[in-house]
Amino acid sequence: xxxxxxxxxxAAEYAGMTSESIGAAREVTVSGTTLDDYxxxxxxxxxxxxxxxxxxxxAVASRPEVVSLAGGNPDTTALPMAELGDMFAQLLRDNxxxxxxxCPGQGDTRLREEICRVMASTGIAAASxxxxxxxxxxxxxxxxxxxxxxxxxxxxxxxGPTYVGALGVFQAAQARVRHVTMxxxxxxxxxxxxxIAESDTPPKFLYTVPTYQNPTGVxxxxxxxxxxxxxxxxxxxxxxxxxxxxxLAFDGEPPAPLRARTDDGVFYLGTFSxxxxxGLRVGWVLAPPAVRDKLVLASESxxxxxxxxxxxxxxxxxxxxxWRQQVKVFRTLYQERxxxxxxCLAESMPAGMTWTRPGGGLFVWADLPHGIDSKAMLPQAxxxxxxxxxxxxxxADGGGTxxxxxxxxxxxxxxxxxxxxxxxxxxxxxxxxxxxxTA
Amino acid sequence: xxxxxxxxxxAAEYAGMTSESIGAAREVTVSGTTLDDYxxxxxxxxxxxxxxxxxxxxAVASRPEVVSLAGGNPDTTALPMAELGDMFAQLLRDNxxxxxxxCPGQGDTRLREEICRVMASTGIAAASxxxxxxxxxxxxxxxxxxxxxxxxxxxxxxxGPTYVGALGVFQAAQARVRHVTMxxxxxxxxxxxxxIAESDTPPKFLYTVPTYQNPTGVxxxxxxxxxxxxxxxxxxxxxxxxxxxxxLAFDGEPPAPLRARTDDGVFYLGTFSxxxxxGLRVGWVLAPPAVRDKLVLASESxxxxxxxxxxxxxxxxxxxxxWRQQVKVFRTLYQERxxxxxxCLAESMPAGMTWTRPGGGLFVWADLPHGIDSKAMLPQAxxxxxxxxxxxxxxADGGGTxxxxxxxxxxxxxxxxxxxxxxxxxxxxxxxxxxxxTA
Lengths: 439, 439
Prior knowledge:
alpha/beta, Aspartate Aminotransferase, domain 2, four-stranded antiparallel β-sheet, globular, DNA-binding (chains A, B)
């Protein structure tokens, strides 16, 4: 199949195995596996960037007989491919020469206008297209903010657990991550105050995914949003608000983004990866003019400019196709799968196990029965043909050993049922093993 | 026009005004123009990254009445848009769900195989798809190599003049650039030896565009390639070979890439921006396994993964469409325009002016008559409705004041004739002004 970037079911499952979705790309250093003539030549930052030893395990997770609850993929089979194909073809016929050319480093003007309309619908009303920088997914937006703000040794505050891709960025920047404890209402204001107080140097910013967080599915409540903003304002702490999931609401609309409540000191990261198509790699940063100029320079240095074609595709999609209706399709699909997952967990998981009840997004976060190590258990799970991401991948400090992330957006309800059933068996066996040795 | 990323002639001309093409994005610091509340918070690297004061001038160059010889754009109007549109549509129908999803950080396997076939045709015969990392254009490849190898204060050697986007990368990495003098046969081996000897610390690598260089159009001769490889080998100096233009040959095939002569110590950067479509942003790095792993980690941190869609589009293009025939179309078109430019320069330029005769690629490099400053002359040129890039943009050391880069790939032959005619008048006036003041 020419042009196939991994198009069959097996490969699509494999496509879930990026560092984003395996969730643990940087937790354990592997060394000595490859003869490396360049060791003496690397930059200092490279010594902190390491591949995970569980990457190898995830090669197994890509096999079709394994039910992967480990991915972080949207279900792109829900997109109307024939209509999109016609749209892409028409785009090339109408504006091909420009879509196939370089574009300004800040991104296409029309797209930045559309992005402001999208943000306005989430409550960010006063944003100007001039203050939007188009990026290769929100990941590049975060990487650019790190380039602009982080010196080696700087402190970044982040939820514990947090998005694994953010940990990768902070590690590459040689920053120190300090986790702020969360509960079912999101990060705890008192813990944020404490983290600021305990920092030996003022933290450069707070990185947060306040809505349907990756990996926990938890949402920062309205009351806590006000408290967090107040604390950050009092301490002069900048906020990086990462909001990929805000539109994927199942149980009513989420609280307005932090950026909707203030235009001062909050950098907002958005993406079309979950509302349209991750494979186009179109995201954005909203930042005040002085910072925006620096983000554009940093982006030109990294990639020259984002793809004019994928920007044009997103612009045309937003302006000519019923994209809000498509978001509803994703919401309905994922809500059904979340319900399935929650019901199956309640049905089959042993006592002592708890999990979050996400109001939207892609993930459930589970606490294993006491004494069970999710990473140690992974080979057994893979042997039983089910995959998840161990909790340690989402921590910079070794935390998360008793936890795991489960994805419900990509596998079908049927696969979720089977996956949770298998997982329950694995946990049950691990619990019995634990009891044997601690009896 | 929905989805238009700048589709009319004016905007397409504007699309040439990225930092790559204006060629001078970082030469002069502008400060104090924006009230900046974040000054105290930026990372150290940001203080070396500055926008050019001539950026504002180039807003003028985007006007349709201005003939821009300043761009660095391929002529994408030569692509068969209807056929490409059909191909894109079919791709989505066949493999849409995977093309719209995340993919592995290293890039799509099938594409990496196709890339090895492309490289084999240039003489790089033994490359393995495992050693290829797909990037957002060759720019990201260079940025990743900088991430992996460059610490602040490190020395990088580069031709003088060199690609402006490379200077941006090295500046962001806080490296020190040392230029190696070139002549009509490319960089001078003795000057390379001298630059190594004069470095207070061993240079991390030599960055070179050996074939149809940007900005000079000059090609490193076969004999000199051997000499450069020998020098680098003796001194243990790594080479970053950037080869975007090698397939755009007008006067017979160019010498084989450096990487074709050794697989030791040469990192090779390739791109489809000039052979297919810059707007898809698909390039690659070829690197040995140990380095490749680090490049993948660095890329995942920057962008998570490249666009699965644009990778699938390039893969399908390479495997199902007559892409080598299309490269010939570009070659023929650009050769005709080069010939036009060289003929017009010979016809109308004043005595004391010289220029290169590129055997391929996109650019002519011109030396102005003694005492004429190309940057100082730019406002006058724009007033006369012609644009070029002053030579200072391609130097890290203030060099290039008496030089300019002229692009012949994007403007039509008719526009080139008119542009060179206008430019000759501007240079003539500047020469007379010079004579008045030095008489």
